[in-house]
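COMPLEX REQUEST
Ligand: D-mannose
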Amino acid sequence: MKMVLRWWPHGDDTVTLAQIRQIPGVSGVATMFSDIPAGEIWTKEMILETKKEVNEAGLEMEVIESVNIHEDIKKGLPTKDQYIQNYIDTMKNLHEAGVKCICYNFMPVMDWFRSQLEMPLSDGSFAMAYDHSYASGLTLSSIIQSMMDGSNAMTLPGWEPERFPAMAKDIEFYQNISAEEYFKNISYFLDAIMPYAEEYDLDFGVHPDDPPWPLFNLPKVVCSAESIRTYLGLNSSKRNGLTLCTGSLGANLENDIPAMAKEFASMGRVPFVHLRNVKHTTEKDFHESAHLSTEGDLDMYAIVKALYDSGFDGYIRPDHGRRIWGETSRPGYGLYDRALGASYIHGLWEAVSKNNPR
Ligand code: DNO
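STATUS: Structure written out below.
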């Protein structure tokens, strides 16, 4: 297992590589170029420049989160093939820079959604929260503003400003697209890139839908054990894997996360894990919490144990932290609470591995 922390280059992060280097047990970063619009090729020069910066800080750059998929591929438009070719060119450049794992998502139009980025918790910290009736009541024109309020003027992953002009129209496009039809577009993409994933030694981990249920009437297809089985079955390459995001999947109380970890990691289809916890106030309303099992609804020990017992040997990162100790950062991606999470996860990993050496 290798522990990484998410980090943005090109001055787009409040957290520095030097700080990340000081978190015990963190060997690298998961990074991306949020300033390159989805669909454009990431040049080798640009990738190598960032790799050099990361390596010089004493860290590895083996994980990319995310190479975003152009909306035309998701929509299955005739222009998709050019964007797929660009994607493959980016894969080649990443491989040549030593990247091993790519996290991506196939969520239409937007990535994750929260109704509140700064909900005050009783201990004086702040966390991101989701209120289902509020989210369901948003109009097309208020979705963007609602998500960006409280973003500390930083880009949010999956909410890069380049997406905004087309967002309302794009949401409309999907109103009549069923999950079944959407799966066809995913299949097309996977069949095109998986041979190159094999050739370039790249593990792909699709990120689950967050929250894991239909919102704004958009098709959601990676939200339960059954839908993940379908997704992984679309292309049988072992490179076609899952980013097991415990907080995203855990927002649906019906999802048994340790069982999912066991099932998909034993298949060798989990190259990357995002570990975080969530606390529900009702079945569909929740807020993010500190990583500890005691702070949320997920049994983090059982999840880590299931991963370890299933032979998991990929990358883990502590996911969204709360905002604590007065830090100002991109929501969810400050230094302090993620560093606490990293140490906690290392503690769990050490305990399960010493208990049952493999
Ligand atoms: C949110 C993240 C997502 C994730 C993408 C992966 O904080 O978990 O933006 O990185 O869905 O493609």
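REMARKS: The mean pLDDT is 96. The pocket of D-mannose is lined by residues 65-66, 103-105, 111-112, 157-158, 207, 332 (CB under 6 Å).
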